[in-house]
């Protein structure tokens, strides 16, 4: 069947020409992205939101609004809407609010005709400032609705007020937490802080003298934590504690400022909690240290290169500090000083206020924990005044984040978003000089929508596009894995939005790509890369060309990756619309649902159309308003015509299969580079073994926005005509049972003028049982010269395996071994194959993996155990020693009786999964190993076994057949006691299998390299605090990582699998 598929496609594809497209696709793609990603254009298809009209509407509404101290106004409070009292009446501010589930908003109940208002619990919902602000912002409702009608790809639009309320469109109901508290405060969000202020360098000085003990120290710590929460990736910070002397709470950061990214902020928070009070507070030394750091960074043009400030947190200042300001800050006052008086005492209030007011800062007193939030936020208004006075409406874009962050109480989707935001200022003449910030407007942009602008079909089988920020963090990348599984639930990783470009493109050892992209350069470079597939179990070796450029008016850079070889070329062909339409209407044909053949999410009449339905309506000109990618549609038409004979053949083949004959093949399938997918069932749908295959439920088997199907990608990197086999589980790859079906796929390549392009991939899905029977039958076919088979795979003392090119078992006598790595089943055989050169060990790194922290005790003393537990532990140890003793005597006696005659011993070992991936060696394979010149496979695995079986040539071109004695390794007359003991295993959180390293003269088991578990933590680089010091560019700094080892995080492994 597969041979016919190939022959048919090759005959049809004759005469098709190829076109080199590296430069063409990059130039066209960049032009498209740079044109359509400009944030504030008026193009008919808006790929990003336009908050400019929201800013204008909000400022105009404030200009026309007169503050009314006694204003009475009812509004839709997000928490109270649809709530009733005991009498069944709607509560105050909780009128009836129509909510309907909307798929565009993660299936949340929303109201797309109006917005609602949310307030945190600590903000009074009828405060005059709140009522006037809510009343004024009612004017935004019409703009919200207009924006969404004009561009239905928009998600959330909102206005965050400086007074604390949050107006969000579409309107939703907000659910408090389990304690009935609403903790969400828009003024704490990164988008608000970044839009309201400019980048800043901050040194926090905290008094840890004896007078700060008790509640005062608790409030001081909470104040520092709150300040840290107001900082973002474009800010730089350090914390200094002082009493009799000055000390940095992180000694590694002495004398510098570090980037306020999430890692560093969390690291500081942990250190702040460990602060202890003692001694006498001497503030002038701390102030002098702070000013020196800020001055050095300013002169070196490092840090944020913008605002600078000192945050002084103390219960008072008594010594002479004025000379410090005279030397370092007066008369220009380039560094603002903000003072926070801790506690209820007011004795030193005048001095703290004097310090702030004479250094262009702000003074506030924090007497309770509840006061912290509001008082800390005041410094943002001070830093925003220059922007407000100058009316600098700077556009900001945030790092990637989950939408469940915003709607933690309700959102079910974990889509990655970025926010585009702008500040809103008061334009009233009487307040213009005061620099009043009204708030910030913003809108969420789904990164998935942005990446749709990088057409998948133009990037080829292994090509992809990615985005990163000016800080080097990934916004979108096919290898970005922001979620981890906890039980049956998927949860965001703690550092999901701070994954560095060097952690996904880790082959860029010189960091040339990273440096160029964060410096917003345009260029290209090439790298040899190892690409993991199939959840890290397999690897491809590719040479990739990287093209990169900046995206105008954003802090983002775009990268496009194209693979060399067949990835450099594209197939072109022409066909008539009539002929193509006829073949497109076949019921077993489908198009990639995530690809954009036609724009269906703008016009409400198009939203219910599938991509295939939209293409047909476009070709028939049934809907003249439908916009489609004409180039992609032409390719789909051509692919439909070329592959149409496959359907006819499959249908005829299915009809010729009698009901009595064995139903071997479940389905045949075919995919093309344009995302066209054909499939044909050879059994009833109810009898299909793997019903998830080729469905959206199984993303690895279909065309997605990020990648081609796994079977397509694997086949494309093997010679056309050679088949790639993959095992599949009926319940999915996470199933604990044995695989039931196997897919075999091969690539269809066309070569013209020595230029090869991959046209398609074809394959079948068959029952694994059939493949196994074929194999067992083949092993019984001995040549007539040799006579009857003296030994067969059916013999009880032989283990026979068929393994794929990455060392995973396709066929084994024991069904539970199928699909497992050969090293797990028999580590000795895998070690021998490695030493013979059949496989090569490949080291891969996964810097996004997570490890569970190991349990530990803070005390060095042993934990107490009960007498029963101690007794059971001792009993278990005695039984283990007894069993080992008996086994040792039995094995020794067996060897001794047989003298020098070799006998094989069964070795039970368990080799855990690792990040080391095995691939076929590209070196010359030793004679007698896998030599298929005479259509036989001869494997020498030990001095006492060497068998040769004649097998069909087709088997040899597909698999590696391993025939060996039971566990394959032989031991001569040397008792086990002559081998050195196995060293104890490491106590690392990642399990390690230990093997004895024995001199070769002792002829013990060959040593196996240590193998570390991959699982969810394949190979992990330590997450460490980052010190980002700029190098002449505010966004182009490289981080100097402090090699602290956070507990429970495992190091990268160099291991075999």
TrEMBL record:
Coiled-coil stretches noted in the UniProt entry, renumbered to this chain: none
One Gene Ontology CC term in the entry: voltage-gated calcium channel complex
Keywords noted in UniProt: Calcium, Calcium channel, Calcium transport, Disulfide bond, Glycoprotein, Ion channel, Ion transport, Membrane, Metal-binding, Signal, Transmembrane, Transmembrane helix, Transport, Voltage-gated channel
Bilayer topology term: Single-pass type I membrane protein
Signal peptide: 1-18
Subcellular location field: Membrane
Name this polypeptide is given: Calcium voltage-gated channel auxiliary subunit alpha2delta 4
Sequence ranges assigned to domain VWFA in this UniProt record: 201-383
Family: Belongs to the calcium channel subunit alpha-2/delta family.
Molecular function as annotated in GO: metal ion binding; voltage-gated calcium channel activity
